[in-house]
Specification:
heterodimer; A: alpha/beta; about 30% helix; globular; B: alpha+beta; three-stranded antiparallel β-sheet; 15 strands; about 45% helix; about 20% strand
């Protein structure tokens, strides 16, 4: 399994993806690949092709901050806000679409989207989003054990 | 009194991460009154973050400014600090720095050429749309990017925010087996880059010649990456630390970015076209021949053809990586020891999108008292604005806002600025006033 934490630590709630990956360090077996990703997502298709993948990212949907949503991205569309405006504008939705056209889709692709509130420069995660980190960690670990 | 009619198009409400861009256009009747490109630049935020930190932290902190060009930030930081402290690194370390920089040029150019710029010439909204009809071209671009990332990952410890670069050298030297694999990767990348250059040479390019003052580093024997004097097509030829005497950054009210100009002259232009114009004689002859055959000779001043120059630089970077890997001599130690003292130092290296300058002032204990970062995008910003203004002057009155926005984005993409509006996230405000 691969767990990809998307986001930028220096941008408030955008840091939730890397924060979840930090918390998973030491809690997962050697067969789980942890990825912190703030660069452009065009490297994702090659990375995740044919594998079981969990992506953690901040989303903006209007729900209360800290709300966690689980989506199957092979069946559902990427919600707005999830990497919609990441580096150089290519986003998670583009990475999924690119995987589809180049035949590099993962075997499974789950997104944990954490509703963010503040993406300010240099800001810390808001308390509600920081409080959601353990929940996401537990659910990711649950996915991992369900698989193996 | 003219009645004000303001029309706003918002492409993305929440621009975040690396850079953010907005373009404001004000027209009175058919006349363009104002064109303002607004860029948020992370470096300003990082300058404040650096003050009070230990000098050895500068490469790691500044590498986080950009997910696309972390090596450039690390390299300018280590060179500035080594210059301040009078440190010389051995050839084996110097070569590895050039090698990791080759990786970043390949990765950055491959992304821009394939996913962002080529779709403009082939009539697609973006790389994803292009991949449906041209999957081979996209696969080739992604393979090139992966090859560049492999060079960065092996030498830098990891590819996105490399952690292996330090003042004085590296924390760990690569193993011979890793270097053998990298050589195969670089040879393959060279083939792919040549195919990409020839492919881009088949595009149709609009006629446009711009009168640029090109600025880049120039090295006595190499195509410039890590070292050299700063020269320009207008006759500047100075050591890097004389930058302030010849250039200046101007605060413009509409942007957090400072605009750089040559004192007493005007706008300057950096990046692949400038490097190529000023240093083509430092390229191997066969690469120059390929670039010319594709449609870019060194006199080229057509910004649309910058895609060809990026391809030629990818080809060079892959070829240079092979050359370095074939001749590399392992140094005695991964780094030379560096002792702090009160000092000031400038460093400049060639980021994929142009010369990136750092200046540090440190105290006796090595604490950073002041940091200055002059990124290429802000130095190019004046030229980009001027080009966009011409587009708006030519088409603003007749084109619907959607089409105008696309034309403006395409114009900006010619310059590969380190902002998200390089793709499709430009927020465009067109304010249309009655005459």
């Amino acid at each position: 399994m691969i767990v990809v934490g998307l986001g930028h630590r220096h941008r408030g709630d955008d840091g939730v993806g890397p924060a979840v990956v930090d918390a998973l360090e030491g809690c997962v077996g050697p067969d789980v690949l942890l990825v912190r990703h703030a660069g452009d997502p065009t490297s994702l298709p090659e990375l995740w092709a044919g594998r079981d993948v969990v992506v953690v990212d901040a989303v903006v949907s209007g729900a209360p901050p800290g709300t966690v949503r689980r989506l199957d991205l092979l069946r559902e569309r990427v919600p707005p806000g999830a990497r919609g405006t990441s580096t150089h504008g290519l986003g998670l939705a583009d990475a999924v679409e690119l995987s589809r056209t180049l035949d590099l889709l993962p075997r499974s692709l789950v997104l944990y989207g954490v509703e963010g509130a503040d993406f300010g420069r240099g800001a810390a995660m808001t308390p509600a989003v920081a409080a959601a980190v353990p929940e996401v960690v537990a659910r990711v670990l649950g996915d991992d054990s369900a698989e193996s | 009194m003219a009645e004000e009619r303001t029309k706003t198009i918002t492409v993305e409400a929440l621009a975040r991460v690396e850079g953010e861009g907005a373009l404001h256009v004000r027209m009175r009747g058919d006349a363009v009154e104002e064109v303002r490109l607004e860029i948020f630049e992370p470096p300003r935020f990082f300058e404040a973050l650096l003050r009070g930190r230990a000098f050895v932290e500068a490469p790691d902190i500044t590498s986080r400014i950009c997910g696309i060009c972390p090596i450039a930030y690390q390299m300018s930081a280590v060179h500035a600090l080594e210059r301040a402290l009078g440190v010389e690194v051995p050839t084996g370390i110097r070569d590895l720095r050039r090698l990791i920089y080759c990786g970043e040029w390949i990765a950055s150019h491959a992304l821009h050429v394939t996913m962002l710029h080529a779709p403009d010439f082939l009539g697609y909204a973006g790389g994803i749309e292009m991949s449906r009809d041209h999957p081979e071209a996209v696969r080739r671009g992604l393979a090139l990017k992966k090859a560049g990332n492999a060079l960065m990952a092996v030498l830098g410890g990891r590819e996105i925010h490399p952690i292996n670069v330090r003042v004085g050298g590296f924390y760990r030297l690569p193993r011979n087996a890793e270097l053998r694999t990298l050589r195969e990767t670089a040879v393959r990348a060279r083939d792919l880059a040549l195919e990409t250059l020839r492919w881009a040479g088949t595009f149709d390019f609009p006629d446009l010649e711009r009168d640029y003052e090109f600025v880049s580093l120039r090295h006595p024997g190499e195509y410039p990456m890590n070292e050299g004097r700063l020269i320009s097509s207008g006759g500047v030829d100075i050591p890097v630390d004389a930058w302030d005497a010849h250039f200046e950054e101007r605060q413009v009210p509409h942007s957090t970015a400072l605009h750089a100009v040559r004192r007493g002259h005007g706008l300057i232009f950096l990046g692949p076209m400038a490097r190529y114009h000023l240093n083509a004689d430092r390229l191997p002859g066969w690469i120059r021949d390929e670039a010319r055959a594709a449609g870019a000779d060194e006199a080229c001043r057509n910004p649309y053809r910058s895609i060809l120059v990026r391809c030629a630089e990818m080809l060079y970077a892959a070829d240079e990586a092979v050359r370095i890997l074939d001749g590399w001599q392992r140094p005695d130690a991964p780094a030379v020891e560096v002792a702090p003292r009160a000092a000031v130092g400038w460093g400049a290296t060639e980021a994929p999108r142009g010369t990136l300058l750092h200046r540090y002032e440190i105290d006796d204990a090595g604490t950073i008292l002041d940091a200055r970062i002059i990124p290429p995008t802000s130095q190019n910003q004046g030229v980009i604005e001027e080009d966009v203004r011409r587009v708006v002057e030519a088409h603003g009155a007749s084109m619907p806002d959607d089409d105008l926005q696309w034309r403006c984005e395409q114009t900006i993409r010619n310059y590969d600025p380190c902002i998200s509006c390089a793709t499709h996230f430009l927020t465009l405000d067109v304010e249309r006033l009655d005459p």
